[in-house]
Amino acid sequence: MLAELRKVRFPVETGLLIAFCIFLPLVEFWKAAAWLAYVLTWLVNRIRSRSFGGDWRWWDTLILLWIGSAYLSAAFAGLGGNAWAKTGDVATHALLLWLVMRAGYTERELHWMLGALVASTLAGLAFGYWKLLSGAGKSGTLQLHSVGHVNHTAIYLAMMLGVCVSWLFTYWRKWRASRQAAALAVTVFVSVSLVVTASRGAIGIGFLLVLLLAIAWWPRGRAPFAASAITLVVVASLMIGFGAEVVRKQFENEAAANVLAYRDGVWRMGLAAWEKYPWFGVGKDNYGLISHELVRGWRVEAGRDYDASRYVRFPHAHSLFVNTLAERGIVGFAGLTALLLAWLVALLRHWPRPQQDDFAWLAWGAAASAWFVTVAVGMVNTTLHHEHGLLAVLLLGLWLSTLRPGRVSS
Fold it and tell me: What are the sequence ranges of the domains in the chain?
């Protein structure tokens, strides 16, 4: 069935997904428009071709459970608010994952999509630097226009660094010197930009990701590990020697005995809400409604002490996992955990063999980068939402599409 589908080309649909990849970090309106047009075109094409990408598989069930757990949590949310409306973010991410996973694009088309993501990142950074250096930006930080806040931008860049590094490791020996130089320049530019964000978690995880990808490439060649290890040592030395902002921030926080930048207080607020509403949470996007007055009442009700200085109110938890527990409870957390664990198991199970084709390695590296950044940075920042969440599920979907039966390389 899938092999038959691959004989039918959908140029408009493919073009819309490429457009989505281009607009994702750049323009909010056109990103949303491209997403909607892509979804509608995908559905029309599959109805006309009478094929939706093959038989139902366990990944399809998992995606359905992810959406279902989010809406079930919204139905019984403790604080009401905008829980129903904001849960649509989960559905948007899940739908993109499902459509791309089942689309049956060729490797050539997938290459174009990944290339569009790299190109749009470069364009977004160029615009971000212009705003930063010209004073046109109000934040005084490097931001991708549609991604927004510097922490969100850093998460996005960390994932794209993984994509660039995977591309570099995969094709280096086959490229001419000019292409090697261009690819290396792009990777360095993304790396430096990540450092400029001064987001400690994303920078540390992003550089660790490079080393882990080099280790993953070890069966295919030793050069990536040696080059990465030397490069990271040099970069770390330069950052410390020249007093990079991220290093200064770390030293200042250590001196103030505030290494977590008040995150521990923010997490206590979230965990207090989870203790009050353990199964379904307070509702999606309701983290900001958790006030000191509410926490004090919950603690007193439970017969526990309350020290206001240990709690910090914030719009979100600065943690994917605490945020999910607080907003969607055990039910929503179970859906998220199932997705992340299945993603990890799939990566380990389908780790490419040395003799596999180049694109298998590139697609796997991109999906592995998205998982690692989502989970590792998710410990200290709220990942898997907005643009970097869409990027993560897109990279996962592109890779999963290569694992479905009947894959062709043309």
Answer: 58-256+317-401
